Amino acid sequence: GTPKVQTDVVIVGAGPAGASLACFLAAYGIKGIIVDLNSTSADTPRAHITSMAAMECLRDIGLDVIANKLATKGDCMLHTRWAHSMAGREYARIYSWGNDPKRKGEYEKASPCSPVDLPQTLLEPELVRYATLNGFQIRWNTEYLSLEQNDNNVTVHVVDKVTGIPYSIEARYLFGADGARSRIVTQLEFPLEKHPGGGAAINVLVKADLSHLVKHRMGNLHWIMQPDKEHPEYGWMSIVRMVKPWHEWMFILFPTPGSKLENRPTKEQYLERVRELIGDDTPAEVLRVNVWNINEIVAETYSKGRVFCLGDAVHRHPPFNGLGSNTCIQDAFNLAWKIAFVIQNKAGTEILNTYSEERQPVGKSIVQRANDGFRDHAHIWNALGITLPTVQERTVVLQELEANSPAGRERRKKLETAISQTEHEFHGLGIEMNQLYKSSAIRADDETLGQEANNPDPILYHIPSTKPGRRVPHVWLNTAVPSGLVTTIDLAGKGGFTLFTGIGGEAWKSAAAKLSEELSVPIRVYSIGFGQDYEDPYFDWARVRGVEESGCVLVRPDRFVAWRTKQVEGDATWAEESLGKALRAVLSR
Ligand code: FDA
Asked: How far, CA to CA in Å, does 204 sit from each of 207, 364, 587?
């Protein structure tokens, strides 16, 4: 028969989803094997925008340091622009990714991390390296074929593409991180919620030093539209995306709507189009071309038995709002502690159902937002006249933008409104940070505490809260010895539960110590306030904690609030009973 090996877990796919899952599991000491069809990590830069939410996950295991080192920061993300060409006239610009002067403070308040621009080509190898240095093995050139599962384990059939030799891996769990064409999702017949796709887009990777053109127009995304010119059907308009400042760029070409792209253009034709989009005589070279599809698909459930899917396998959407790899990393972070706790007998297997319950609604919402983000751009195209069929009609519109006439004023207003609406894409702090998990691993049923403040626009704004199911708010705290501020984000996570309390909450310390021993689960307790473990010099914790000083906020290993209670209402036994009840429920024990 075919050779068979055994391990804890198998991950199919070493993209952002699979590789980050391996890292988070490795941090818990879980061993496993990753298989990937390819010979190496991503060969084309795809996702770039790395959000604070994803960065916080990496920070939990110290990977934020290398991510920050590899990322380009600051000014390069300052704007998104709309222009006739890179060298030519600018129609409009909007601040992006936390750089809007009126919104910068919100970003700083929401997280100790900053959004960065980090291409997948640079992030993935670091994830794979961390995972393989910490207990995972990776098998490149290895194709996943099929699986069988029973009550005890899952058998994964793969083939080594180098030798052609098939073999099987027996594990406790299998993770399908096999991307948008997931064979695992297809084989297990996960129901998919599908909306019609938005067509194809063509990524043309280009070497061209455009420093002189962006020096005064900083930004990583530049929409180029030339309504007054004829254009080939494969290059109706383009997003020019920074890859390496400022000498490598992705020219994302959108074909004319409805075109079938039957005749694939040559490299020379692409180059010609790229040069028109650059708009001056800067030397340029086409490095490679990839076609991808704009999807609007989400799986209705993410797991079946011992198989859990994550990343593009279960949510497929375009890059607007930069939610792709960020959501993959957060799927993995949600799943890792649950799997590790079950394997290590710290949690009951029912906790694994909460992965799909918590992450599927997130996937659904980001698929919709990314596609709404794309649809929002249509208002800009209309305002600029780019959607009209002839050069003549389009030129009239372009001239109208300058006209001292009611039509001119209306058109300028239309453009302004359409550009402003894209704040939902370029400053979507809410969609990035406002997740609200609902499952048995969140105890909100005895919630008698105050309501959250009304959020006027949940895509744009993040309102920190300790409501169970929300991410624990980031608050800078002081230490007794002057040694720099510490964030609640760093006190929480790191493989264990964290309980935040304050003056009068001593009962929680002994309760947590007892329960930690009894349940074999790490629980750290920090008292925050005057003369406590940490002090709250800005009173920010006092404002956001949502409970009385002696109350407590219990935070899961993934830094989401599991439970909170208003105040100490009895003796040590009471504290132990109420905390124990919450913990056992959260852990399905
Ligand atoms: P991902 O697709 O990255 O990884 C899946 C892995 O599984 C691959 O390494 C593959 O080899 C492996 N695999 C698949 N089937 C297998 C099998 N049977 N056996 C073994 N291995 C198997 N996003 C964005 O934000 N901005 C952008 O510009 C782009 N552009 C873009 C271009 C192209 C060409 C693609 C394909 C994708 C994008 N994306 C993007 C999307 C972004 O790249 C995406 O959200 C993440 O890569 C998804 O990460 P995953 O790990 O889920 O899948």
From this structure: 10, 29, 48
